[in-house]
């Protein structure tokens, strides 16, 4: 299948809750908090995180996603991965996608490592027979075979991340969606993980990578999309996109830069 991504006028509003001034003022003790909550419950508001975003990505493209902190890059990747549904607009994705956004997502801390491999791989769309054929290589890559029957909650965060990475990258997908290039863990694992990622990127039809590391983006990507306050600010060749991002960053007042570098 030839992969592509088509995004048309994508808008995403997310709900959040605010405590009214009256409730906040009365919230001085447990009792008054309860009274405040009863008579002035938190109000639901909506924040527009993505606003009229449109672009096309065709097979063979490696796209850098650029933007300041809080611009909307991760949220956009989540929409492309299918985790978030747009409030308005259309998102069409052809091809199997792999999102390396949150390696710990979908784990059950009370289940064993082996059970977690089955849970996560099932969520990725694999059959029990396919998973059985992969379990050994996942444990070999993550170097966690010796503790496979322990509960996940007994693992360190670094070990969990290794397991998540080993499962998520165990199969080649058509589309890779990544939030920063993987760089956590001890040196030998990082080298091994980089080699696997390089291989997966080379064999993917489409890669979308959000990062603030320009050198790495220049090495991997050929195109760039700049997001500013939830809107597309620039689309073009990667070096031009990096320049456009720098221009936006330079134009932002110092006070804003401190809160959103
Ligand atoms: N569930 C949510 N509820 C309310 N606001 C949210 C939610 N998720 C994200 N946001 C807000 O949406 C905006 C975009 O967040 P996002 O994580 O997509 O930014 P980003 O460009 O990936 O930033 P960074 O470079 O820091 O990773 C931020 O202002 C964030 O606070």
TrEMBL record:
Keywords linked to the UniProt accession: ATP-binding, Nucleotide-binding, Transport
PROSITE patterns xrefs: ABC_TRANSPORTER_1, ABC_TRANSPORTER_2
Listed GO CC annotations: membrane
Domain ABC transporter: 32-254
Domain of life: Bacteria
Pfam families on file: ABC_tran (PF00005)
InterPro entries: AAA+_ATPase, ABC_transporter-like_ATP-bd, ABC_transporter-like_CS, ABC_transpr_TagH-like, Bact_Polysacc_Export_ATP-bd, P-loop_NTPase
Keyword check for ATP-binding: yes
SMART domains documented for this protein: AAA
Alphabetized Gene3D superfamilies for the sequence: P-loop containing nucleotide triphosphate hydrolases
GO MF annotation terms: ABC-type transporter activity; ATP binding; ATP hydrolysis activity
CDD domains: ABC_KpsT_Wzt (cd03220)
Family under the similarity heading: Belongs to the ABC transporter superfamily.
Stated name of the protein: ABC transporter ATP-binding protein
Native source organism of the sequence: Luteimonas salinisoli
Phylogenetic lineage: Bacteria, Pseudomonadati, Pseudomonadota, Gammaproteobacteria, Lysobacterales
